[in-house]
């Protein structure tokens, strides 16, 4: 009888407080820029840092290096995937903690090596991939051998969100960079895709099998671009958005290319541009005002969304609310494969 009552008590406690199972994937690896950086730039000699207030004002631990008032999109996705803790930055990840994944993202980083150099130190896409290679060695040591590590890593999700700075802090910054004089927008997009492909192939060669490729969002609609390049301060800078769409369209094509060439892997594309366009076109439908602060606003600063916006983008990336949100499937279904 006592055992029976003890079982009932455990069941009730489970229903009241929730019993979380294991995450949907064993680990989550993140590559990107300031949209998802969570502290890797803190110790770098860089102007691109967010480890001070008002950044992190709504985050449980205060400023951490996240370029928002609170959570980033990958924080939201990590929670939806069932992780109990946020994925640690590479600069702080250690021991068995890395078995749950690592965030390699670096503010001002781009696909191109030179991108963002006027802001100081940053870790480019290729540098982030090199750091991941170091993590692999640690995973092998933790799991005992290479076959076990390879099997483990093949089940993890690899999220890549780069390209924004290649436009903001390279192509559309002619005083510092010559790329806009060397290439047309389409040629530059091709160059970016070519370099992106090389890093994607490297990650595949290093054991990654579940890829999330995140397109560039509406940079031309950010407060900074509205202030500097909009004809009336309200209309998005179409020249910039057109270049972003060109890159993102080619990135979506890369998904088909890699899926066709690698039957043992799955690549998906997240339409960040389309999701953000939906939000900016109908801000009131999502409870947003314009910019500046807190969870009633879309942007936290001149470039970076608020936690409220990140929650919407993260949820739609995960669940693919619309067929246009993700291609060919969303992150939730990718995790199930």
From TrEMBL:
Which key words tag this protein in UniProt? Hydrolase, Lipid degradation, Lipid metabolism, Secreted, Signal
Kindly give the SUPFAM superfamilies that the UniProt entry links to this protein. Answer: SGNH hydrolase
Record keywords: Chloroplast included? no
Q: Which GO terms describe its molecular function?
A: hydrolase activity, acting on ester bonds
Q: Where in the cell is it found?
A: Secreted
Concerning InterPro entries, the annotation shows:
GDSL, GDSL_esterase/lipase, SGNH_hydro_sf, SGNH_plant_lipase-like
The secretion signal range is 1-21
Is-annotated flag, keyword Ligase? no
Gene Ontology biological process terms, A to Z: lipid catabolic process
| One Gene Ontology cellular component annotation held by this UniProt entry | extracellular region
The record's listing under Pfam families reads: Lipase_GDSL
The family classification in the record reads: Belongs to the 'GDSL' lipolytic enzyme family.
Q: What is the protein's given name?
A: GDSL esterase/lipase
Organism of provenance? Hibiscus syriacus
């Amino acid at each position: 009888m006592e055992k029976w009552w003890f079982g009932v008590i455990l069941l009730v406690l489970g229903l009241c407080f929730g019993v979380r199972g294991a995450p949907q994937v064993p680990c989550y690896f993140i590559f990107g820029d300031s949209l998802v950086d969570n502290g890797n730039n803190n110790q770098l000699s860089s102007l691109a840092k967010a480890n001070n207030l008002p950044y992190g004002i709504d985050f449980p631990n205060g400023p951490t290096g996240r370029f928002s008032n609170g959570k980033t999109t990958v924080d939201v996705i990590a929670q939806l995937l069932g992780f109990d803790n946020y994925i640690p930055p590479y600069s702080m990840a250690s021991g068995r903690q890395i078995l749950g994944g690592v965030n390699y993202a670096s503010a001002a980083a781009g696909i191109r090596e030179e991108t963002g150099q006027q802001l100081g130190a940053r870790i480019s896409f290729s540098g982030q991939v090199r750091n991941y290679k170091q993590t692999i060695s640690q995973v092998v040591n933790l799991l005992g051998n290479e076959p076990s590590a390879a099997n483990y890593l093949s089940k993890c999700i690899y999220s890549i969100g780069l390209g924004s700075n290649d436009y903001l802090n390279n192509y559309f910054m002619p005083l510092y960079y010559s790329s806009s004089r060397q290439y047309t927008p389409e040629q530059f997009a091709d160059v970016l895709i070519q370099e992106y492909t090389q890093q994607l192939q490297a990650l595949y060669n290093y054991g990654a099998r579940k890829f999330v490729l995140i397109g560039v969002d509406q940079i031309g609609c950010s407060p900074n671009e509205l202030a500097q390049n909009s004809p009336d301060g309200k209309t998005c800078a179409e020249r910039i958005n057109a270049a972003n769409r060109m890159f993102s369209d080619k990135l979506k094509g890369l998904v088909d290319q890699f899926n066709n060439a690698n039957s043992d892997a799955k690549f998906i594309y997240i339409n960040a541009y389309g999701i953000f366009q939906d939000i900016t076109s109908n801000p009131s439908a999502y409870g947003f005002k314009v910019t500046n602060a807190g969870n009633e606003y879309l942007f936290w600063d001149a470039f970076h969304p608020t936690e409220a916006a990140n929650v919407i983008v993260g949820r739609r990336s995960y669940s693919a609310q619309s067929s246009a949100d993700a291609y060919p499937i969303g992150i939730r279904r990718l995790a199930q494969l």
